[in-house]
Amino acid sequence: MTSEEDLSKVVPFLLAILVCDASTVEPSSGKKTLVGIFDRVLADNFPTNRQCALYFKITDAQGKYIFKIEYAQVNTGTKLAEATSNVVSIKDRLKAADFILGFPPLSVPAPGQYEFRLYANNMYLGRATIIAEKRSEVKT
Amino acid sequence: MSTVSLDGLIKQLDAGKSEDEPLEGLLPFVLPTMPTKIIGPALPETILLGALRDPRLRLIAPLIITFECENDDIVAYCEELEEFGFGTHLTEAIEDLQVTIAELYFTLKEENDRLGSNLIRIWDSLHQKIKEVS
């Protein structure tokens, strides 16, 4: 069990954060493949659900980290989901580390803005935003 | 839309490996049991700010930010720097504060030889927690 004192105080630098339909990891090299990167959700009706994966890449991190991702509806200020990682150990501060997280279908209750907020050891690093729109109201 | 089941991928790899090696880069996240219900308000009392969103600056130690609702706006406050950020939602307030802190850093850096005692204290805090990226 890792106590809070064991967790790193080094602030990672967020290089990228992306939302996509799905992602895979190549087992021998650890290379990631992102399928269907998006920042907009179109639906005929709301509420709807959307399966997605979150990719993020950090650098300047060293030590033990617990990553937390909050999925929130921006307009209403409600947190709809939260995922917390186990302890992840990062050895080399000079190298980048990237991670993916596959979410189960997430609720999109209404058109509007949603965001995934990334925290490392409770330090806010950044966010990825998606916009949900009704298909009939989108101009082609 | 075709999707790739991540769960299926993990099982397949585990079955094919003789040693129990974790799949590097795939975070062992504990997923929420009920991810589609509202689990709480998005406004926390405090957060640790770990980034400034200014490519010239890096935070080397987090800043403690507290939040308050004021009418329909969210106020993000950094007590040690005596700076506020405002927005219609949480991240807008955080990002406004991030810009304000970056502006404060460069203003105090420029006026460094003309600072009063309070601003010298704030500059010391900034200097301890922020470094410039060349």
Uncertain runs of chain B: 1-23, 31-37
Question: Total number of helical segments of chain A?
Answer: 0
| Beginning-to-end CA distance, first to last residue of chain B | 44 Å
What is the number of beta strands of chain A?
11
What kind of sheet is the major sheet of chain A? 5 strands, mixed
Supply the helix-strand structural class of chain B.
Answer: alpha+beta
Strand content of chain B: 15-25%
Fraction in beta strands of chain A: over 45%
Class of secondary structure makeup of chain A: mainly beta
What's the total helix number of chain B?
Answer: 3
Mean model confidence by pLDDT of chain A: 90
Spatial strand sequence of the major β-sheet of chain A: 3-11-10-6-7
Q: Largest chain-chain contact?
A: A-B, 60 and 44 residues
Rg of chain B computed from alpha carbons, rounded to a whole number of angstroms: 21 Å
Global outline of chain A? globular
Question: Can you give the mean pLDDT of chain B?
Answer: 78
**Portion of residues within helices of chain A:** under 10%
Overall 3D form of chain B: globular
Count up the domains of chain A.
1
